[in-house]
Automatic annotation (TrEMBL):
<keyword id="KW-0472">Membrane</keyword>
<feature type="transmembrane region" description="Helical">
    <location>
        <begin position="128"/>
        <end position="145"/>
    </location>
</feature>
<protein>
    <submittedName>
        <fullName>Uncharacterized protein</fullName>
    </submittedName>
</protein>
<feature type="transmembrane region" description="Helical">
    <location>
        <begin position="99"/>
        <end position="116"/>
    </location>
</feature>
<keyword id="KW-1133">Transmembrane helix</keyword>
<dbReference type="InterPro" id="IPR048147">
    <property type="entry name" value="CBO0543-like"/>
</dbReference>
<keyword id="KW-0812">Transmembrane</keyword>
<feature type="transmembrane region" description="Helical">
    <location>
        <begin position="31"/>
        <end position="48"/>
    </location>
</feature>
Amino acid sequence: MKEKSILIISIVTSIVLFLLAAKKNIRRSTVVLFFVQSYAWISGLIVAEFNLIKYPKKLIFKKSYKGSFEFEHIVFPVYCVMFNRFYPHMKNGFIKSSYYAGFTSFIILLEAYALKKTRSIKLIHWKLWISALTISATFYCSIAFEKWVFKPFDKAKNKSISSS
């Protein structure tokens, strides 16, 4: 019962956060969300199929999908949208590194809690440091993808601002 409550609260919170984050810039938020869903789906499927991680307690697709649909398609993609929305683009390297470390640490702490206190995740041939690396890599890829997709629009926007 505890696992089910945590999953429901995570999903509801993620949906509310997405709506709040996307309110100002829905197009960018949606592109990041879909990109991370695709990325997380492939990586999550690989991890689950090779039995590196098991998800004994799930709400959605209990039998047909070995990965964690709730985390890979709702919670983590929304978390990446939040990461991208508040990313300090114009700050120095130390601030950016601290931002990565803070966001990564928060989700790793939640994963560590889930490992100790619930039966929603079980690490077989996986370690938390591997999760930290893959989460940070996903953050980097989501920022790079967003920059790449919206580069022409950002250039046009900056050109129109400077010509005014």
